[in-house]
Amino acid sequence: MSKPLLALLLLVCTATSQAASDVPNQIQSSVQACDACHSDQHNANSHTSSVAPVLNGMSDWYIEQQLANFQLGYRTGQGPDAERIQQAHSKEAISGDTLSLVADYYDELEHRFSDLTLSDTSNLNNGELLFEDKCANCHTSAFGRFLSDGPEITPLEAPYILQQLKAMQTEQRKFAEETKHHRKMVERLKDMSTQDLIDIVGYISKNAKSL
Ligand code: HEC
Ligand code: HEC
C-alpha cells in the first residue's frame, strides 16, 4: 500500500474510533438505553406508542428539568407504552451525576431538525398569525428563552409538538416548578381549537430552520 493511501486509511480509522468513543465511558450504557427510543437514527414513530423527540442539541438544563418532571409525576408516558416510557425516565433508570453527564452529552451534539410532518392539513397563514402573536417571544429568540426558560421548539418532531400542546392544554403535562410563563402559555393554549394547534405546528415544521 502506498504511503499516502496508508496515511489516509489511518486518518479514517482514527476519525471513526474517535466518533465511537465520543460517549464518555461511564455513561455509555445509559446513552444506549436512551437512544433505544430517542436516537436520531430512528423513525420517531416506530419504537413507542408516542413520539420520543431526538435529544441531540437539547439544552442540558431542560433535559434535567424534564427528567425531574417525569420522576415527580408531572409528566407521564402516553399510550399503550406509557409504563415502559415512565420506567425509562425513573430515578432507578437515571439520576444524579449520570443524568448530568448524559444531559451534557446530548446538549453538545448538533441539533437534528426533524422532517416528520403531520398527516392533518394546516392553514399556514393562521398558524403564522397565532405563532407570531402567542408563542414566538418565549421560544424563538435566545433572549426570550432566557427570560422565560422556554426551550427551543423548532427542531422538534411535528407529531411530538402537537402531542405536547394537547397534553399541556388538558393539563396532563404539568410543571414541577410552575412559573408565570408556564401559566401564560397554558392560558393561551386553552383559547385554541385543535385546528389552531395543527395550524401552528404546520407553520413551525414548514419554517423550522428560519424561525
Ligand atoms: C421506551 C422509550 C424511551 C426510553 C428508553 C427513553 N425515553 Fe425519553 N421519552 C420517550 C417518550 C415517548 C417521550 C415523550 C413523552 C411524552 O409524551 O411526553 C420522552 C421524553 C423525554 C424527554 C422530554 C423531551 C422534551 O422535549 O421535553 C427527555 C428529556 C427524555 N425523554 C430523556 C430521556 C433520557 C435521558 C433517557 C435515557 C436515560 C430516555 N429519555 C429514555 C421515550 C423514551
Ligand atoms: C410566556 C412564555 C411562553 C409562551 C407565550 C409560550 N411558551 Fe411554550 N413553553 C414555555 C416554557 C417555560 C416551556 C417549558 C415547559 C416546562 O417547563 O415543562 C414551554 C414548553 C413548550 C413546549 C414543549 C417543548 C418540549 O420539548 O417538549 C412546546 C411544544 C411549546 N412550549 C410550544 C408553545 C406554543 C406553540 C406556544 C404558543 C401557543 C407557546 N409555547 C407559548 C414558555 C412559553
Automatic annotation (TrEMBL):
Domain of life: Bacteria
Primary localization class, coarse: periplasm
Record's keyword annotation contains Transport: yes
Keywords, comma-separated and alphabetical: Electron transport, Heme, Iron, Metal-binding, Periplasm, Signal, Transport
Residue stretches making up the Cytochrome c domain: 19-110, 122-208
PANTHER family assigned: CBB3-TYPE CYTOCHROME C OXIDASE SUBUNIT FIXP (PTHR33751), CYTOCHROME C4 (PTHR33751:SF9)
Protein's recorded name: C-type cytochrome
